[in-house]
Design goal:
Elements lengths: L6 H9 L12 E3 L3 H9 L4 E5 L6 H12 L3 E5 L4 H4 L19 H4 L13 H9 L7 E2 L6 H8 L10 H10 L1
Parallel strand pairs: 1-2, 2-3, 3-4
Length: 174
């Protein structure tokens, strides 16, 4: 597997394709971390597979930007992390004269809007957000039921709800 071959070997094969006997037309790297960052900046790879989602930090975004500048083909994965797609635990707040019963902003977390956006499921919003990254050639998802695949396949044809981008940025700051 590619993970068991040292980075130097991949770089050697990329620079001298005749050594692979024509078996490898392009070489890619997948993952996250310092080793992947080093591999991307080396310029020895043709493709990158990297996690990308609502919570992706500056290091992942920089890696994707660097790969795009090197004309690498980029695949995103982990578009909807389970911790964002699970409905938040909702503790019942006591109703009083000036307070409604139900969850509070503190109990649903910064990404609570994912579960409150009308006509959208949380995983659909996460996928729609990932599709807005222009550097990604495709997004790899895992779905084990046909109805989920059908539901997610309709996401690219939908418009993101108004104000969602602002909510996402506010949640990332929080």
């Amino acid at each position: 597997s590619a993970a068991s071959i040292p980075l130097a070997t991949h770089a050697l094969l990329a620079e001298h394709p005749e050594l692979s006997g024509g078996l490898a037309l392009q070489i890619g790297i997948s993952g996250a971390g310092a080793l992947v960052d080093q591999a991307v900046t080396s310029g020895a790879f043709d493709a990158l597979s990297s996690p990308f989602n609502l919570t992706s930090g500056w290091n992942i975004r920089r890696r994707i930007r660097d790969a795009a500048q090197l004309n690498m083909s980029i695949t995103g994965f982990d578009a909807f992390p389970p911790e964002l797609c699970r409905p938040p635990a909702q503790a019942q707040a006591k109703a009083s004269l000036f307070r409604r019963s139900g969850p509070t902003a503190a109990s649903v977390g910064a990404y609570g809007f994912l579960h409150e956006t009308r006509n959208w499921e949380a995983d659909e919003l996460c996928l729609a957000y990932a599709l807005t990254e222009p550097s990604l050639a495709c997004i790899q998802i895992e779905a084990h039921r046909p109805e989920v695949i059908e539901r997610l396949s309709a996401v690219p044809d939908r418009e993101l709800p108004t104000g969602l981008a602002a909510q996402i940025e506010m949640a990332r700051i929080d």
